[in-house]
Amino acid sequence: MTQIPKQFHTLFWDVNIVSFDPLEHPRYTIGRVLELGDKEAISWMKENFSESQIEEVLKAETRLSPKSANFWAIIFGIPFHEVAALKHK
Q1: Is pTM, for the whole model, over 0.90?
Q2: Which DSSP string corresponds to 19-85?
Q3: Which residues 6+ apart lie within 8 Å of 68 measured at CB?
Q4: pLDDT in tens, 8-60
Q5: What domain range includes position 14?
Q6: 27: in domain
Q7: What is the CA 24 to chain-centroid distance, rounded?
Q8: What do you get for the CA distance between the two ends of the chain, in Å?
Q9: Which of 16, 22, 29, 54 is most exposed, with the fewest beta carbons within 10 Å of its own?
Q10: How many domains is the chain built from?
Q11: Is 88 exposed, middle or buried (0-12, 13-18, 19+ CB in 10 A)?
């Protein structure tokens, strides 16, 4: 089981950090790091998840803020119309 490093526990305040395995919940984990993580958290995320997993989250996760979604769409070169959080409802 992969553990969330101690310095990132505050990103996951709503889960039992002792039993939570981030690799079993990639959409939740990646989304939380994209929304709230710092440089260190982003580096950790990239070490544990593939670029395609991260891109899949951007295309599916509607809970990202428009600001975060826009930023990460630019970073990963994803057209805005493919980013779930940027689609008009």
Answers
A1: yes
A2: T--GGG-HHHHHHHHHHH--HHHHHHHHHHS-HHHHHHHHHH---S-HHHHHHHHHHHT--GGG-GG
A3: 34, 35, 85
A4: 999 999 999 999 999 999 999 999 999 999 999 999 999 999 999 999 999 99
A5: 6-86
A6: yes
A7: 14
A8: 37
A9: 16
A10: 1
A11: exposed
